[in-house]
Design a protein that fits this description.
The complex is a heterodimer of chains A (325) and B (147). The mean pLDDT of chain A is 95. Helix content of chain A is 46%, strand content 14%. In chain A, helix 10 packs antiparallel against helix 11. An eight-stranded parallel beta sheet of chain A has the order 6-5-4-3-2-1-8-7. Chain A has 14 helices and eight strands. Chain A folds into two domains: 261 residues, Divalent-metal-dependent TIM barrel enzymes (TIM Barrel, Alpha-Beta Barrel), CATH 3.20.20; 53 residues, no CATH class. In chain B, a hairpin with a 2-residue loop joins strand 5 and strand 6. Chain B has one domain: Sandwich (Immunoglobulin-like). The relative contact order of chain B is 0.32. The termini of chain B are far apart. Chain B is globular. In chain B, the strands form three sheets. In chain B, strands 1, 5, 6, 11, 12 and 13 form a six-stranded mixed beta sheet that branches. Chain B has a six-stranded mixed beta sheet with strand order 8-7-10-3-2-14, with no helix packed on it. Classes of the chains: A alpha/beta (325), B mainly beta (147).
Amino acid sequence: MKNNIDLGVSLYGFTQRYIEEDGYNFREMFEDLNKLGIRKFELVGAQMFQNYPNPTDEEINEVMELAEQYDVEPFSYGGYVDFGKLPDHRMNDDEIMDQVTYDLMTAHKLGCKYIRGFGIPNHLYERVAQMAEFYQVVVAYEIHAPQRPSDPDIQELITIFKKLQSPWVGFVPDFGCYIEKPNELHIQRYMGLGAKRENLQYIIDNRWNGFTEEQMTQKIEEMGGGLAEQMAVSEWFGFLSFAPADIEGFKTVLPYSKYFHGKFYHIGEDCVETTIPYEELLGLVVESGFNGTIMIEYEGHSFYLNDAVEQIGRHITMEQRILAD
Amino acid sequence: MPTKFSRLGFEKRVIRPDGFYNILLNRKQVGFNLDLRINYYRGLPLSCVQKLEVEVDGEKIPEHLMQFQLREKVFTISELPNMYREYWGSKTPAQLLIYNYGLEPGEHDVNVTLEFKSPYMDFGPGEYGVIDGSAEELLQLGTAREL
């Protein structure tokens, strides 16, 4: 494939060591980026700044100084809108815009070109585009599981982007939206917590047979399932949702995609991804004429195997192979 | 729908021996300190704390004996739901100061119930995802420190 696409790594992929080890911080993460031969990174503010959404100058300076020392580049900033944090009401539009602006301020200080937007309602994107232009940072709406690009709210956002014609807003599609089947390691994790395999198989087989999350939870309880099965239902109907990949929907968001989240959970020694159709998705990204970055986002820390560098290394090998073909 | 119920596997981070010791004021034992961290992948606004209870050796500590300290600021437990501008970072320990005249030297069963709402996962008006950050440890009481 002839293309002009490079790879970055989200520091989110290092979650396990970052949370578990007092001594694993930006320096150590940047050393790991060096080992992986990666320069560009994403930083999730709510995770790695201890004073989010307004990190101190000291926190920002630490990142900047170490990034220079290790020759790595803050490429994107993982933002949030914690719209439920107020004691008495869900944030209104102005309050949400304040949160977006805080993230823009931080991204600007870090020199990030992009923000991964999360929790910003569609109707605010006109205001977001204006503020993003002020700060010269693109705000990209993350299309994340269990959403699918064909969903009406995503299609509505395409209409808004078409109308706005602003280079300062767009999408960051997360490849986790295209998980076609649960990873065996997830099944084993629930079994480790006490779930029965036959109950888990029932949830998998019937995920798209008309059950709501509540109905499935009830059914599994009737089948003797406990807390572990309840967690499986919650996750498989939630952020770990799986379904036949929404390829047609993916094509519709490509013209507005600013960068991509190369999400993955586990990859074997053969460096072949078995649950997300990477070859097809990357093929379409290249065909679309995209010039930019795939930000690799390892989420296998949910298995607590402490294997981020090895896993990300394998994933890089896979993406490089596909992009070189 | 996002994921409604979460419990992550970082519970060993929540309570640790190095943050468990009696506290002294003017060399007199007045209570004990318990460091707490979040069992989550990110930090949270303090207002997300929905439930914070502590039992030591099966005995519940009354809420009025506890103060919650984050960096230089101190709060009562009932104040926490209003503290949306304060952020409990993923690596930042908070200190619970518990004025119960302290604990006997030796090992204690410390059981913390800590529940958060997830501020970005909603399931309808006022209904948010729940993060269970509870933990239980058998801990050796450390050397007493002057407050």
